Amino acid sequence: MTRILIIEDEASYRETLAFRFTKDGYDVQAAETGEEGLEIFRRGGVDLVLLDLMLPGMDGTEVCRKIREKSAVPIIMLTAKSTEIDKVVGLEIGADDYVTKPYSYRELLARVRAVLRRRDVDSAQIPIKDEEPLVCGPIEMNVAEHQVFVHGNPVFFPLKEFEVLECLLRNQGNVVTRHQLIDRVWGADYVGDTKTLDVHIKRVRSKVEDNPSHPQYVTTVRGLGYKIDDPNAD
Ligand code: CA
Q1: How many angstroms does the Cα of residue 121 sit away from the middle of ligand 1?
Q2: Has residue 196 been placed in a domain?
Q3: How many domains does the chain have?
Q4: Which of 90, 141, 185, 230 could form a disulfide bond with 163, CB atoms 3.0-4.6 angstroms apart?
Q5: Helices (H), the chain
Q6: Are residues 96 and 62 in the same domain?
Q7: What pLDDT does 130 receive?
Q8: What's the pLDDT tens digit per position in 6-50?
Q9: Domain range enclosing 76
Q10: Do 172 and 136 touch, CB atoms closer than 8 A?
Q11: Is residue 139 located within the same domain as residue 114?
Q12: What's the CA-to-centroid distance between 79 and ligand 1, angstroms?
């Protein structure tokens, strides 16, 4: 049974979500605060987190960061604010998706199913154990183990960021268009907000580049897309 953890301080939202997801066959756990939510999460077995952005005490961004330090579990942010900046913030801290309140349950259920489906597709792929790591300069990716090392140090990549980097590495030296990246990483689930890809590229750069504001590995090819290359290679 798929277990959903709902972290939401407003009782009406929390109870409605718990009721409806339970009715749809999910195993639901609910928490009123970020602290309580993390406590439940640490006990294990959670397949997806619905996380309210505005929480008393530890807020949603902090809870998301804490979960991301340890886990790639799918996280959907529930946000009352609809400005683009909040959406961007949600994705920058490693959430997989977001919905803006007031949302319809149908829409949220569709997002939950989409995120879980992507996870299932990814985990169903048979890892090719003997595959050579993908390497570009100081960046080394072991696809089967879902590991990335930069200058030999392990760096955590949430699923989407991992896939963006993987796609670039598999096409090393060649331009990957924005369209190709979106298609490969998000497919039909891309919400059409052009900022989503930019945010993920920015996150990837912040992890692999020595100076993220002057990237030397993941470069922008104006009007086309992105490319990964080692400028120090022959
Ligand atoms: Ca709230």
Answers
A1: 32
A2: yes
A3: 2
A4: 185
A5: 11-23, 34-42, 60-70, 84-92, 105-124, 159-170, 178-185, 195-208
A6: yes
A7: 59
A8: 999 999 999 999 999 999 999 999 999 999 999 999 998 999 999
A9: 3-124
A10: yes
A11: no
A12: 8
